[in-house]
Design a protein that fits this description.
The complex is a heterodimer.
Chain A: H1 8-13, H2 15-47, H3 52-67, H4 70-83, H5 90-116, H6 119-127, H7 132-162, H8 175-186, H9 189-218
Chain B: E1 2-11, E2 14-24, E3 29-34, H1 40-47, E4 55-60, E5 63-64, H2 72-76, E6 79-82, H3 94-104, H4 110-123, H5 139-151, E7 157-161, H6 169-184, E8 188-192, H7 196-202, E9 205-210, E10 213-218, H8 220-225, H9 230-239
Parallel strand pairs in B: 3-8, 3-9, 6-7, 7-8
Antiparallel strand pairs in B: 1-2, 1-4, 4-5, 9-10
Helix pairs in contact in B: 3-4, 3-5, 4-5, 5-6
Classes of the chains: A mainly alpha, B alpha/beta.
Chain lengths: 221, 240
């Protein structure tokens, strides 16, 4: 049945190229998490703000991000924004599309984490003369990040895997993009994608393990 | 001086304080006793503006607590409060719990804040727990840490809201000893408490709260030793 012969040697020769693709993948994921975390905190606050405009905006964002495919979100960043005259290159579209998705999921994670912190914590902080912004920054935020830490790790792994969507808007520098290019050039589909899968797996593991180390260092209480 | 004039406070349609008046002089220790739900704790929350009021006014050193123009964060710096549920900040060590507000609110440098904190922590008997997280402390130790945390802001007034109610009986003594020490040092204090004997020992005046008003107030020898109102007698009989 097999008239396909495996050629691992030439495929492995492309490893440096694929590794630099993996680096781009990791870079997009990290940046999208940073943007997503900042936006997520703001969305969580906006949603609870009591201001109808703000909470409506936040709810809309969160609903869209969580209930439509990530692929469509990246598509919208590339072609959708393009049709109203905002042209983003593929790298930025992927980054912003995934950041949009991250923000939606993280906002809900953060909202839940904030609710888990007793209101009396804020009361105690206010009684010491802290304003509400200071009490949030010094007392709520650090405790919130601890509660949200493991869900954030999951989101980070998810973000890494989502970057592979980039290939549909022409991203050719990330791991999937590089692999696809090699595939088209050589048709060694199985070999290249198998190597890519191993690399994705290793990046994801690397993230989980370093998150565990970080938690151990950060959360001593 | 804390001047409380005819204060009214409601939660929704439920009126908790129905016209409370009380003046507390500098250096005075006033204990507030009374049944659950009589409004004792609520009054403390109103004094430092953690709760709004619906009538009357509270003036601390000439500043109206609930006036919109009052810088409440500034005013709170001179009114320390310790809660029934001590509210330690779990993500900070004992030392950091105590230095946080002096550094971030008063803007004192780290080293100076730590010196002050160490002094207060030693004062309440926690000098050997500086680097420990609150989760490793007993309830009584956490409560004493909360007292040190409030004292580190060098307040002029201290409010204590049933600070021993959530503690195991064997831990009550250490916290009361700390309060006693403060009263001997001349701290102005309002102590909401169920510890009647303690109130009798440390207070200059005792106020008996009933149904949202001060039902009887006077020196402890009177209110606890020889109460004038039948309701006070009844309350004391039920708790002693």
């Amino acid at each position: 049945m097999l008239d396909y012969t495996f050629h691992w040697r030439p495929a492995l020769r492309a490893l440096p190229e694929m590794l630099s693709g993996a680096l781009v993948t990791l870079e997009i994921a990290v940046l999208s998490m940073i943007l997503g975390t900042i936006a997520g905190v703001l969305l969580a606050l906006a949603r609870q703000s009591g201001n109808r405009l703000l909470s409506g905006f936040a709810t809309g964002w969160i609903e869209l991000a969580r209930n439509t495919p990530a692929l469509l979100q990246v598509y919208m960043a590339y072609f959708g924004l393009g049709s109203i005259g905002i042209f983003l290159d593929s790298y930025l579209s992927v980054l912003l599309g995934i950041a949009f998705n991250n923000a939606g999921y993280l906002a809900e994670t953060f909202r839940g984490a904030m609710r888990a912190i007793p209101h009396t914590q804020v009361r105690a902080a206010r009684s010491l003369g802290m304003g509400s912004a200071k009490a949030f920054r010094l007392i709520v935020l650090p405790q919130m990040f601890r509660i949200a830490f493991y869900p954030m790790t999951n989101q980070m792994v998810w973000a890494i895997l989502m970057t592979s969507i980039g290939v549909i808007v022409g991203l050719d520098t990330d791991l999937t993009g590089v692999t696809q290019e090699l595939n088209v050039r050589t048709f060694r589909t199985f070999e290249y994608f198998a190597i890519a899968a191993v690399l994705y797996y290793l990046i994801a593991k690397l993230v989980t393990v370093s998150a565990r180390l970080m938690a151990w260092r950060l959360f001593r209480y | 001086m804390i001047e409380i004039e005819n204060v009214r406070k409601s939660f929704g349609s439920l009126e908790i304080l129905k016209g409370v008046s009380l003046n507390v002089e500098k250096g005075e220790v006033v204990s507030v006793i009374g049944g659950s739900g009589s409004g004792k704790s609520t009054l403390l929350m109103c004094i430092n503006g953690l709760e709004p009021i619906q009538g009357g006014r509270i003036v601390v050193d000439g500043v109206d607590v609930h006036d919109r123009r009052t810088d409440i964060n500034k005013l709170r710096q001179k009114i320390g409060i310790v809660f029934q549920q001590w509210n330690a900040f779990p993500h900070l060590t004992v030392l950091e719990n105590v230095t946080l507000a002096p550094r971030k609110v008063l803007g004192i440098g780290r080293r100076e804040a730590e010196e002050v904190a160490v002094r207060h922590l030693a004062h309440v008997g926690l000098g050997d727990k500086l680097g420990v997280f609150p989760s490793k402390l007993s309830g009584g130790q956490q409560q004493r840490m909360a007292i040190a945390r409030a004292l580190a802001m060098s307040p002029d007034y201290m409010l204590f809201d049933e600070v021993t109610s959530a503690l195991d009986p064997q831990l009550v003594g250490e916290v009361l000893a700390t309060l006693r020490m403060l009263s001997e040092e001349g701290m102005t204090m309002i102590i909401v408490t169920h510890e009647i004997r303690f109130a009798r020992d440390v207070s200059d005046r005792v106020a008996f709260f009933r149904e949202g008003v001060i039902h009887e107030i006077g020196p402890p020898e009177q209110v606890i030793g020889n109460p004038q109102r039948p309701e006070t007698v009844e309350f004391l009989n039920s708790v002693l």
